[in-house]
Amino acid sequence: MMFSKHCWLVAVIVVCGYVSIGRCQNVSYAHSNDELAALQQLELINVAYWQSVEAYRKFSDDTLSAEILLRQKLQPYYEALQKYDWQNFKDPLLRRQFEVILRGAVHPPIGYDFKRATRTLKSMSRQKWACPRNGGGKCNLAFVHNIKTIFTNSDDLDEIKYYWQEWRNKLPDSVKEALHYYIGYYQNLSTPTRNASSVWYAEYEDANFMAELESLMDSIQPFYRELHAHMRHVLRVKYGDSVIPPTGLIPHHLLEQVTYQAWKKDSVLRNPFPQRKLPNLQAELDDVGLLPFDLVNISARFFSSIGFENLTDAFLDEHFKAMEPGSGGPDCKSRIFDFGTIEMHYCPKVYYKKLLQTHGDMARVQYALAKNNLAVGLNQEASPGFGNAIGEAVILSASTPKHLQQRLRLLQDYEYDDLLNLNRLYRMAVHTLLTIPVYFVHEKLWVDMIDGRVTPSEYNCHYWNLMQKYMGVEAPAQTNTAAYDMPYKFYEGIVDEYRSTRKIFGEFLGYQIYRAVCLITREFERGNAYKTLDNCDFANNRHAGKLLKEIMVSGSIKPWRDVIKPLTTVQLTRISATSFLEYFDTLNQWLTEDNLSKQLRVGWMESDKCKGNAVPLNITAANAY
């Protein structure tokens, strides 16, 4: 007997003993409001889902994310599910399951054009089109592998400025076409009652989620402006007064140089207390002689210490595999399959940043183990970036001097006094505080694009208006009139698994979860110099593990706002910048006092790139920039 795809799934369910039904062609639950019939329909979907999960792990070509591919596999079932009166089901869990699954119903089937655009945007940072400055050789320089290295290591501002401009001037039409395809894709999902950004934010269950992100930016702006004034002064001291224009705006190529050199030993930056040198953690790791798989074991032991079930040697051997050298990109990022059978391909290198990242990766593995046994739909993360937030909280704990010294037995010859700790916080802030607003500008630009608030002819000037407003940054040079000056992270940030929303959400919520766990477990106590937030390590604390487990096992059973609600005494159900600001409070105070002592202006002047009007903004001191 020949079965159609749909009939074959029914046959599988009969064999598995879930339900007993009649002949395939007579099966139809679509016209019934009965919850039992709905459950039987979901069994069909469950089989299709898990088959697709395993196929993705084995045969994925890295173009589309697992979420998009699984949504695609459920396309044949959306019409049947929508015929149920599911909003009036008595079972709240069943209503929730329908609600989560049917978010995908607004998306059309994925075709070749979508895949091509996605592939273009994901790979553009590695595509070679820039020409060398000396004019010799082929125009085969990529940003990630070549130009980023120049920004990280060069102090030649003419060289940096050249490559900033060259990469943008040569931006291929294929990238612009892919961007416009994505814009059109989301605009086509809008209706008279639903704008495109409400689809973009559907998994955050808030059509106006941008307002919450804007509130976060407003909260961190005073801290950012102090760092901006300090950074502007450092650049002038190093390169001369002429590098900063009278407006106080920092040219973008200098900002990129500072960002890429955030953790570099001999960088353009100067620590607040240079006489207190930060330890060379790479040398410490080299002395210990760790192997790449040791980082996996160390991360697994972190979770065992807080009460998670031990990952057996057999599990680790079977589910954790070293990547082929060079396959993880320049940052050697692990690849994690966290749907169905869990598998992690880890970086075959050992360095400090990777030690911390592996803790975050292990958090994603533990999150998958906690939620993957839930029914289809409910087994998703609470919102995109929620797993990243849990990982960020764990990384913050594992990166503390307390953890490195007492748990991992590193830095035994160092005493972290207030001065050394300020240097550490300074480097962390440069990396984090210069990155978050970038992702926000990209997010804001993208939402304004898809909602039609700016026209294509205004995209570039609108981008620079946002960069001025939120970052005090301007273009260092005029590019060609048809150029889009956004960096590669903007283009990556509109692709599902790299979207900027995940980055912003995960960063702030990560600090929020970290602070809540530290407070509840009393590893952080306000006013106690021995239990500060920036040195809170909750390893070995079973109560901390219990709190993280409760977050993880929820999956998408309830909205993310309800998942985080029990973490605070005020039952907070939104993202807040309070934890982030409290973490860096001592550095913020130092920056404010240091800027005042040097009589530095805090703020800059904006000029509307679309209209050419100059607007002064937040000039708070009398001296020149």
TrEMBL record:
Disulfide feature: C131-C139, C332-C347, C518-C536
Cofactor: Zn(2+)
Record GO terms (molecular function): carboxypeptidase activity; metal ion binding; metallopeptidase activity; peptidyl-dipeptidase activity
GO biological process per UniProt: proteolysis
Signal peptide: 1-24
GO (cellular component) term, any one: extracellular space
InterPro entries assigned: Peptidase_M2 (IPR001548)
Co-factor note (free text): Binds 1 zinc ion per subunit.
Domain of life assignment: Eukaryota
EC primary class: hydrolase
Keywords: Carboxypeptidase, Disulfide bond, Glycoprotein, Hydrolase, Metal-binding, Metalloprotease, Protease, Signal, Zinc
UniProt binding sites for chloride: Y204, R502
Keyword Signal appears in the UniProt entry: yes
Enzyme Commission numbers on file: 3.4.-.-
PANTHER family per record: ANGIOTENSIN-CONVERTING ENZYME (PTHR10514), ANGIOTENSIN-CONVERTING ENZYME-RELATED (PTHR10514:SF44)
Family: Belongs to the peptidase M2 family.
Protein name from the UniProt record: Angiotensin-converting enzyme
Organism expressing this protein natively: Drosophila lebanonensis (Fruit fly)
